[in-house]
């Protein structure tokens, strides 16, 4: 399990870098980091997706945020499947590697082919009308490739969860 250490290091780095995000009047955001690791003697792409626990609950539950228990691995696996489908990676397949909750943050770990190309990310587009994704690709020997993608609900696209006003 030598490949797990980079995941943990990336998760801690992201947690520290993203600490202090205000919950009130915030734009929902997700942070995706791609790194090259070796698992079982094979080079793969390790993806770490960090998002707010409230956002993860909305995605995992599909309706009400309180219906899902993020401490259960099957809920994190369901969340990972949804997140993977929202990444623009062509025909590449991703595998669920694990997940964890740390305070108000949820980390989902996926693996894919070493040559995985991430062209876009819409991981929060099914639950929010407006969102931001930051993708950081650390796999090259040169400078880290980073892009931010903002989005709005596309015409005709439906949210899987409508936020209720109280």
From TrEMBL:
Cleavable signal peptide: 1-24
Keyword terms of this UniProt record: Signal
Residue ranges, annotated region (Disordered): 139-166
Name of the protein this chain belongs to: Uncharacterized protein
Organism field: Parvularcula mediterranea
